[in-house]
Amino acid sequence: MPAAYPNTRLRRTRATAWSRAMHRETVLTPADLIWPLFIIEGQGQEEPVGSLPGVSRWSVDGIVARAKEAIDLGIPCIALFPNTPPEKRSDDGKEAYDPDNLMCRAIKAVRDACGNDIGILTDVALDPYTSHGQDGLLDDAGYVVNDDTVAVLVDQAINQAQAGADIIAPSDMMDGRVKSIRMALEMGEHPNVQIMAYAAKYASAFYGPFRDAVGSGGLLKGDKKSYQMDPANGDEALREIALDIDEGADSVMVKPGLAYLDIIWRAKEAFGVPVFAYQVSGEYALIEAGAAAGVGDRNALLMEKLIAFKRAGCSGVLTYHAPDAARLLNG
Ligand code: PBG
């Protein structure tokens, strides 16, 4: 007997496809995917987003068609983002709580066409509606004020809930907004409307193509570092997440995704709540650009990144790759 043979050969279980399938620890299914969609005015309109190859803005009828596509693919939820016409953007972002805004019309159209066959998640923050591109109201010095902004975000959230949104997702990073929105939903007879808090949202360089898609990028002066988190901080993310759970969030989100897998893992370990990741626009664009530059097989690259979120502890992922990933999974 040669003495050097190991007892344990981890390669044994990797040798065949059936064995690899049997030992796989995590799975990705279409039910893990949330599909973000950008809305524009008009009828029959599709407008490709230059910085997000393969992603378009759709008029409301196109959003309904995408929602039906999502149902067919087994994707349980869509996330809606409006590209508000420039003339409707203002310093105070009041379009956000107009019951006839683009967002509300899209929510109602999807609900009318699809009933409860799909979840509708709506983003709460003022940036698609403000003339300055910030997520809240500004004081004279250009600082985003907290409490007055929260009051407007509550109006925005209730407006979305009244139109039929299932999940309110505050992405603004104001202090105390989850509590205020939860209270308003309860008092406004929307006890079953969920809150998915963008609890740990970082001031990231990966949001560029999204700001292009909703038309806020060119308007934005300065940055969002006085409310979004410092990418250097992890303990602070756990404090943000703890607060949002305490304030009534049903689930929490970490954003961006891949550079923050440690935060996802820590959040899941510490709180055991449903954690979602937002694989943001810049992450999507990098995969597409990398594949186009010959870095590797595009489908393999995107699926490897998505399974990483599951391995890290996510319940699901918001990703612009949702329809393609679902098609790949459905074979
Ligand atoms: C709005 C919001 C942003 C994103 C989601 N909601 C942009 C920002 O905070 O500037 C980014 C999503 C993406 O990059 O895909 N506050």
Strand and helix map with partners:
Blueprint: H1 17-23, E1 33-40, E2 46-48, E3 56-59, H2 60-73, E4 77-82, H3 102-114, E5 119-124, H4 147-163, E6 167-170, H5 177-187, E7 194-201, H6 208-214, H7 235-246, E8 251-255, H8 261-271, E9 275-279, H9 281-292, H10 298-312, E10 316-319, H11 322-330
Parallel strand pairs: 1-3, 1-4, 1-10, 4-5, 5-6, 6-7, 7-8, 8-9, 9-10
Antiparallel strand pairs: 2-3
The structure holds ligand PBG.
Protein name: Delta-aminolevulinic acid dehydratase
Pfam families: ALAD
Organism: Parerythrobacter jejuensis
Give the helix proportion (percent range). Answer: 25-40%
CATH top level class name:
Alpha Beta
Q: Tally of extended strands? A: 10
Strand content: 15-25%
Q: Biggest sheet: strands, sense, closure?
A: 8 strands, parallel, barrel
Whole-number tally of structural domains: 1
Distance between the termini: 47 Å
| Cofactors and ligands | ligand PBG
Tell me the name of the CATH homologous superfamily: Aldolase class I
Give the rounded overall mean pLDDT.
Answer: 97
Structural class: alpha/beta
Shape: globular
Can you characterise this structure?
The chain has an eight-stranded parallel barrel, surrounded by nine helices. The chain contains eleven helices and ten strands. It has helices at residues 17-23, 60-73, 102-114, 147-163, 177-187, 208-214, 235-246, 261-271, 281-292, 298-312, 322-330; strands at residues 33-40, 46-48, 56-59, 77-82, 119-124, 167-170, 194-201, 251-255, 275-279, 316-319. It is of the alpha/beta class and 331 residues long. It has one domain (27-330): Aldolase class I (TIM Barrel). It is 39% helix and 16% strand. Residues 123, 125, 127, 135, 171, 207, 210-211, 224, 280-281 line the site of ligand PBG.
